[in-house]
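ok, trying the design again with the full structure, not the truncated one.
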């Protein structure tokens, strides 16, 4: 054990860059974005230690502080609700149909029926309508389209 510690001690500040490579490698293997920010902190501490020659205890403290700061920075600026998308309804298929006029495929009776959307059929809720009637999508409830009678 003592020989292993002496081996790593001989690398000096390069240990931080080696740690960064290990963390970046783990980031590619393990799903999610967990090790990237710690790897970035290790790179920063490695270059900071090379430039200033700070001792090991201060390097470890700097690594802890920089790792926490990068995690909080990422959580603040790289959130899904902050990121703007040119296709915000991409994974919410029903939302894409709001406002569209569709044809009733199976009569809407007692508030439930089916409408044709392209080459598929979706369940629909709304006022009673016969087969072939035009309806307009006003909202969605999960995979059910909420419709109303379309005006001519």
């Amino acid at each position: 054990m003592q020989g292993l510690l002496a081996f790593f001690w001989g690398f000096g500040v390069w240990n931080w860059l080696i740690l960064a490579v290990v963390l970046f490698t783990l980031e590619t293997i393990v799903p999610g974005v967990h090790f990237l920010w710690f790897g970035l902190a290790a790179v920063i501490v490695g270059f900071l230690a090379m430039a200033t020659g700070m001792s090991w205890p201060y390097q470890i403290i700097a690594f802890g502080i920089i790792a926490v700061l990068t995690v909080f920075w990422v959580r603040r600026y790289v959130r899904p609700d902050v990121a703007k998308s040119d296709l915000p309804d991409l994974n919410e298929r029903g939302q894409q149909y709001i406002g569209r006029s569709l044809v009733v495929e199976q009569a809407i009776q007692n508030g439930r029926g089916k409408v044709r959307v392209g080459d598929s059929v979706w369940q629909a809720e709304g006022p009673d309508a016969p087969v072939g009637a035009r309806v307009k999508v006003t909202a969605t409830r999960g995979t059910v389209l909420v419709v109303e009678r379309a005006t001519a």
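Keeping the full-length input from now on. The chain has a mean pLDDT of 85.
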